[in-house]
């Protein structure tokens, strides 16, 4: 098992959370949207935290590469968190159009971000960390806490 398998699986989990949130908003079911959004927000924050504090930290320590791909991913995490704030505001205002527009932007960013991680950064991390079971266990524990 690679170090990044659980994170890759968690991308799909966050995608499902996003779909549930968006579907509820499209129906105008704001209570269901609020519940789904809370789960999406929590899961994405957890995911970013585990990546940045466990995976990226281990990768940077092993390779000495503190800029580059991990810096780009951290920047994109901040962008997504800002979009989540905008979604929350649209949700609170029950503004279907605003919610849909922000959700579309977030979806594109999530898809591009996940592809970069899964096709570029995660393989680099797996190669550099060589199946480090301590890192893998910390990732699994953090995602399932």
Please give a quick description of this structure.
The chain has five helices and no strands. By secondary structure, the chain is mostly helical. The model has no long low-confidence stretch (mean pLDDT 95).
Give the CATH class.
Answer: Mainly Alpha
Mean pLDDT metric: 95
Low-confidence stretches: none
CATH superfamily: nmb1532 protein domain like
Biggest pleated sheet = none
| Net shape | elongated
**SSE succession:** HHHHH
Helix content: over 70%
Number of helices: 5
SS-derived structural category: mainly alpha
As for the number of domains, it is 1
The first-to-last residue Cα distance is: 20 Å
Rounded to an integer, what's the Rg over CA atoms?
16 Å
CATH architecture field: Up-down Bundle
Strand content: under 5%
**Strand tally:** 0
CATH topology: Four Helix Bundle (Hemerythrin (Met), subunit A)
Describe this structure in words.
By secondary structure, the chain is mostly helical. Helices cover 87% and strands 0% of the residues. The chain is elongated, with a radius of gyration of 16 Å. The chain starts with a helix and ends with a helix. It holds the Pfam family Hemerythrin. Residues 4-125 form the Hemerythrin-like domain. One of its GO terms (cellular component) is plasma membrane.
Main features:
single chain, 145 residues, mainly alpha, Four Helix Bundle (Hemerythrin (Met), subunit A), 5 helices, Hemerythrin-like domain-containing protein, Hemerythrin-like
């Amino acid at each position: 098992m690679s170090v990044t398998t659980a994170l890759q699986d968690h991308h799909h989990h966050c995608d499902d959370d996003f779909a549930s949130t968006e579907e509820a908003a499209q129906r105008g079911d704001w209570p269901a949207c609020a519940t789904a959004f809370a789960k999406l927000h929590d899961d994405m924050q957890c995911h970013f935290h585990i990546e940045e504090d466990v995976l990226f930290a281990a990768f940077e320590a092993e390779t000495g590469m503190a800029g580059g791909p991990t810096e780009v991913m951290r920047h994109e995490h901040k962008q997504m968190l800002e979009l989540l704030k905008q979604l929350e505001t649209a949700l609170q205002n029950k503004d279907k159009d605003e919610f849909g527009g922000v959700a579309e932007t977030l979806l594109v960013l999530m898809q591009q971000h996940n592809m970069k991680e899964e096709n570029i950064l995660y393989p680099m991390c797996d190669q550099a960390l060589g199946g480090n079971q301590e890192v893998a266990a910390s990732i699994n524990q953090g995602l399932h806490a």
